[in-house]
Structure formats: C-alpha cells, structure tokens
C-alpha cells in the first residue's frame, strides 16, 4: 500500500513550524513544505483560525472503476492542525528514532538528584516553552496578512511583562519590527532592555526543570543523550535569538554555558541544518540598509 504523502503548511520563519519539520527530518519522513504565513489565504484554507503549522496527510486508495479491470486512484486528505496533535501523529507512525525522555532508574548516589524526574516532566517543559517561551500573539490585525509583514508585526509590549517571558514576542520579533522601520541595531538594543528580566526568569525556570544528575555528565541535549521534543521546541526560538545582541544576556545567565553547549549539540544535527533556511537564525528579517544587522552593530 502506498505511503501517505505529507505536506507541511507553514513558513520556515515560524518557530512552531520548524518544530514539526525538525521532527519529520529527524525521523526521515519524506515531506514537502508550503511556506505560508499565518492568516494568509493558504493558512486560512488549512486551519480554522488561520494559524500554522498544519500537516496535510494525503492517502491513496485504489477504487474500483466499475468494469472489473480498470482502477482509479482517489486521494483523501486529512488536515491535522496544532503542533501537539501533529507530533503525536508523527510519533505514532514513526516510533524510532525516539524523541521521548525515559529517565534511567535512580542510583543510590543520586538519591537527592532529580526527585520526581518522570517522563512527563519533559512534556511539562514542552508546555512551558510553547505557552510562555515561544508564543507570539496571532491576531487578524497583525501584518501577517500583508506581503511585507515585519513593520507592524507586533503591538507594543507591556512596560512590565509578568510571568514567563515570551522570547519571540518580547525580543526577537520586536527587533525585526524596529529594523524594518529603519532603526539601527544599536538604537534598538536599549528599547528591548526592559524585556531582558523576563528572559532571565524563563531561564531560571528552565534551570529548575532540566535534569541535573550530580554523579553523571550533563547530557548533550536537554533531557537525554539524544534529542527529545523538548529540544525541538526550545531550539527554534533560541536559534532565532542567537544572532541578536540579546543573546549575550542568555550567555551571562548561570544556565548560559550549558545552553551554549546544548546549541552546539543541536547544530550538529542534520535535521537542524536542513531546516535553517528561511529562519531568523539564517538572517531572515535581520537585513538592514547596507547589509545584515550585526549583533550590537550600528
């Protein structure tokens, strides 16, 4: 029976979409990608709220044409929306290589380490990242609907953000908006400084969530010796943050050195290299008059 044909609806610029394409590439699932922005006609046709990503699952079946000899191929397409639903489907059709976290049995010397570190703690962290770390507001009034979306990508941020930071909403996308409006990178940096405490808060929470076995080396990835869905959720937003001056604030945090080593582990993955094109991490949106905006440059 022919394998389904998979199509990802969503621009590489979207961190949620990159989470999906990272998983598809990592599990060697062939697919194509239609690079549309939220609330564009293509996104509206695929998702009832016009957001991305959507996974189109096109299955083929031979239907009897009625003469006993000829057959016609009919295609039936399922639209699977929402990142969490899509990754559950990907996991069901391709168990390996695993993207799950299976904590090793605790050793006596680790009695005080990672108490309560169960498999679901990885999913808890995924929810933290998706809800607070990478979320950006999606509203019909945003310029996603326009061909040149960056100048009015986001509304003004609150003066005193509360709760977990939204890295994309609080740092990355506002910088792109200001660059598109003509401000120099050095002029933008002080405008975003009030949002840096929210980044530190998010990193504090991350430090509390990650395994930290005292008697074993820190794993190369967030939860395990191999990538998990936690890695594929966090990496797209930190990869977008890395080419900006605000990356220095992350490196200065106590968790910074561990995250820098983790980013190196992620950079070595083939799926990361294959999903980089079209992202902020590849320079999209960072162009200014005369060339790309260097981190901290004038």
From TrEMBL:
Residues 4-98 form the GST N-terminal domain. InterPro entries: Glutathione-S-Trfase_C_sf, Glutathione_S-Trfase_N, Thioredoxin-like_sf. SUPFAM superfamilies: GST C-terminal domain-like, Thioredoxin-like. Pfam families: GST_C_2, GST_N_2. This is GST N-terminal domain-containing protein. PROSITE patterns: GST_NTER.
């Amino acid at each position: 029976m022919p394998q389904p044909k998979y199509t990802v609806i969503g621009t590489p610029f979207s961190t949620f979409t990159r989470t999906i394409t990272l998983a598809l590439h990592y599990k060697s699932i062939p697919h194509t990608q239609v690079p549309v922005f939220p609330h564009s006609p293509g996104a509206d046709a695929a998702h009832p709220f016009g957001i991305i990503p959507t996974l189109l699952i096109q299955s083929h079946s031979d239907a009897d044409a009625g003469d006993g000899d000829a057959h016609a191929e009919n295609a039936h397409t399922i639209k699977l929306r929402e990142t969490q639903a899509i990754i559950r489907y990907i996991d069901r059709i391709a168990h390996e290589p695993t993207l799950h976290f299976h904590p090793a049995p605790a050793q006596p010397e680790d009695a005080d380490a990672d108490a309560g570190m169960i498999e679901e703690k990885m999913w808890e962290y995924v929810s933290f990242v998706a809800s607070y770390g990478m979320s950006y507001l999606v509203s019909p009034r945003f310029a996603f609907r326009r061909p040149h979306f960056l100048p009015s990508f986001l509304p003004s941020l609150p003066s005193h953000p509360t709760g977990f930071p939204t890295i994309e909403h609080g740092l990355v996308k506002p910088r792109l908006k200001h660059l598109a409006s003509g401000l120099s990178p050095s002029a933008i940096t002080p405008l975003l400084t009030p949002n840096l405490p929210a980044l530190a808060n998010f990193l504090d929470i991350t430090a509390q969530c990650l395994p930290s076995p005292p008697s074993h080396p820190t794993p190369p990835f967030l939860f395990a010796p191999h990538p998990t869905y936690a890695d594929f959720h966090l990496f797209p937003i930190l990869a977008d943050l890395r080419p900006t001056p605000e990356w220095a604030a992350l490196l200065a945090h106590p968790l910074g050195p561990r995250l820098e080593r983790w980013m190196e582990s992620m950079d070595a993955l083939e799926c990361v290299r294959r999903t980089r094109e079209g992202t902020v991490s590849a320079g999209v949106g960072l162009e200014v008059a005369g060339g790309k905006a260097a981190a901290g440059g004038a």
